[in-house]
Each structure stands twice: as structure tokens, then as C-alpha cells.
Amino acid sequence: MIYCSRAVALFAAAAASLVVCLPAFAQAYPTKPIKIISTIPLGGSGDVAMRMVSAKMTESMGQVVLVETNGAGGGLVAARLVVKIAPDGYTLLHSSSGALASSVYLSKDLGYDPSRDFAPISLVSYAPSLLVVNVAVPANSIKELIDYAKRNPGKLTFASNGVGSFFHMMGETFKTAAGIDALHVPYTGGNMALPLNDLISGRIDIFFPTIALAGGNLTGGKMRVLAVMGDSRLAQLQGVPTIAEALPGYKPPPSWFALVGPQALPPAIVGRIHGEVAKAINDRVVAGRLNDLGMVGVAGTPEALAATIRESIAITGKIVKDLNIPPQ
Description:
328 residues; D-Maltodextrin-Binding Protein, domain 2
């Protein structure tokens, strides 16, 4: 009985010591540069957002926060690397709903469980896509596009960044909801400018770029925007309806960008990084720049990100099953 009491006392003292040490541990971090491996292609909306956030984190934390792009294998190479890295907070992963959710069903040999093998840190941003068509397509609205496609089954093409990618699922779910047939043209290599250029030149009929990707091509008659593939209209395109307005009942697949670390990353470091991300996203200049590019900063809590990952895995699993998309 005395032995048990002493053990309990020692355990309590150790636990109290740990609680006291955690804030100090978080305050000491970081003592060297932090590397964020991003699976998002250079120049993509998620890449732009993370680089703005990392610049603010560098200012605030007193250490360089470097973003290094590695989109090999659709982001799976970087994800597998970070799963096995030392959980010290100096190597993190910035990725999308692709590598952190839909990959569960689209990869034959994933090598990790997104809902179990990472420490969720923070949602960072999302950027609604646009449904655009090349100017030769005789449609000025989603209704006109659907009517034209039904009169010409199989004639239209839509581009994506690969079989099973977010843009592939976007196109296929849109086809199903609209009741039309269109040919999928997958691009590989991560250069999203290629399908965009092919759309402008008339080789592709439909694409789903963000405002950041489309850039100045949205004006000057180079393409026609028919819908915003998000929940609300964009300030820059107030005259363009959301896809739900144009095609009631259709909900695009989940799309978001988030920051995670190795599963055993200490809670104190998770809290510190999340706080810095939130501070950066709430910065007036960063928020304004994101808005200009049609993006939304999120800074969701680690718990919110964990729930988002679980929900997105369930949603994309149903999409993959319904569309019979084979794992790659």
C-alpha cells in the first residue's frame, strides 16, 4: 500500500513536470529552419497560399520556414517521406485532399493511413475551381453546355491532371449530375498550364482552373467562365453563378490544402505551428492577397482538420466506387 502511494506520488510529480515543460518546449521551438514539403505544383493556388503563409511564419518565428515542392507520384512520395521522418517539427507536409484523403482509394500501394499516420496541424486554404470552356464551345451557361453536350454525345472533352485526380473526379461527377457524355483527357507531370493552354487554343473544351491558375486569361475573350465550383460566388466574378445555382443538387468533390506532420509530433509543437498559421492567415495583407486570387484562408484547428480528413475519405470513397475509378 505504501509502495503504491509512493508510485502514485512519483507518477503525479512526473506528469506535473511534463505539463510544466510542454509550454517551455513550445517556446524554445524552433531553433533552426523549418522545411515544409509541398505536394502542390508550383504556381497552383495552394502553393501560392502556403508560400505567403510561410513568409509570415518566417517573420514571426525568427527562423526560415522554407517551402520545398515535391509532387512526385501525385504527392505520395512526399507523404511517405514525412510519415517516417523524425517528429521534431522541422519537416512538415503541405498537401491536398488528394494525397490526404482520396489516395486511400486511388493508390494500389499507399504506404500510409492519412487518418492515422499524420499529426493534423491546420487547414490552410481552399480555392474554388471554375468551370470554363474554350470560346468555340457554343454555350454561355451551364444549361446551354448541357443541352449542347446532349445533342452531341461524346464530342466534348474535359482535362484533368491525371486519372483519379481531383479534376478527374470533378469532371466525372459533373458529367453524372448533368447526364452528359464527355471524353476525359488526363495530363501528367504536374504542369497545370498545359491543359489551360490547350483549352485556350481549342484542343480541350472544358477545364476547372482556379482564379490563380487562370490569371489574366479570364479576360480578353480567351475562355468563357460558366460556373464557380464552390459554395458561394466570388467577388471577382459576381455575375458567375455557383454550380449549385446552375445545377441544383450537384456538390463537387472536397478540395482543400492542409499542413500535417509525423504522427508522433508533440502536441506543444502542433499548437505552436497552428497558432503561427492562424496568425499568418489572419494578417490583413495575406487575407487580402488570398481574396484577390480567389482563395480563402482557413486556419482550422487540428481537430477540425482531423474531422475533415475523415469526412473527405468517406466522400471520395463513394465517388471512386460509383465511378469505378481503378486504383493506380
